[in-house]
Design brief:
Layout: E1 4-7, H1 10-17, E2 24-30, E3 35-38, H2 53-60, H3 79-92, E4 102-108, E5 112-116, E6 124-131, H4 148-158, H5 185-197, H6 226-239, H7 256-264, H8 278-300, H9 311-336
Parallel strand pairs: 3-4
Antiparallel strand pairs: 1-5, 2-6, 4-5
Amino acid sequence: PFAAKLSVSREMAYGIMGSTQNSFLSTYQTTRPVKCLYFDGASGALGENGTMDLQMLFLYGNTTGPLAKHSNSYFLWDEYARAQRLCSWLHEHEFDIPGQGIEGIVRMSAGFELIWCNFSSPSLQLISRFNVSVPLLGYNRTTSPMPYFQKRSRALLASSQNPEDDLPAPDWDIDWEHEPFVASQQWDWFTSTSATYNPGDLVSVRESSIRLLESDLLSLYSPQYGQHLSTLVEYEREHFNLTLEGGWHSDGSQGSRRDAMSQLMRRRANHRVGNMDAQDLNRLRLDLKQMVTRVLSADSHGAWNRNAIPWSRISDTIVNNFAKRLMHLQRLLAEGLDCDGGST
């Protein structure tokens, strides 16, 4: 079956795929609650800062994937082939039974998107399809460069990067100078999703159409991935100048304590999985397979999510109780950290 990406937000869908002379807005609706895999974090954000690492590691055993055919470019930008590989894993293990199994993969960037694996499934129906192409401008836009995303995509399409060679790619070979909305499309869908999910100060809104199954989660911070955790500990000791006991030691430079606190508050942003050894990687794949099998089995017996710990509600409680207090404490500490000490 052919896999493709759907967006929860029509503004996001149009912003990413709509600025061509062959743009159609198709609206789909599920006919029943469907089960999907969810990759946490900004797993739908194309970049080389770690957002795609877990998917790439799971599929290829590394964080770059294979080199593109006829090119020195890596596989990162080839979303269609990656979607097909993820769906193929579900199919190979017979997890993708239409109407019953895992039928898609949910990821997040600025908003949420769904990789749908089988459009012949009765779980999804097409509601409408409109041509949303816009007339070209009557003049050349010569003062602005082509956005990086379109430039990068055009280069990769020209290199025939799809290993399977039969996966369709979006038509980004556009008449850039005459397209009216290309220059602002990314800004528009970023602002629309921000307004949807972050409407106010420290207020976030959940995506109501997606419900997390909180009884079955996999985390690479779990103790069964011991070697991976040991690698992270060694990295933090070296990178953040930590002692064996977990304390911080000053390097003696002016402002080092203040800078260290800023880095430590964001320490997990530097965690990567590219150095995971084969044993932990095999364990991850086995754990995921067992988790999906357990979820589908529980669902068939009517026991799905019966004993789940309400992690989402717990997270909301923590944020609501402590977010503003911690931000206030952070400002107080920043104002008072003018003196450098030894160990803390």
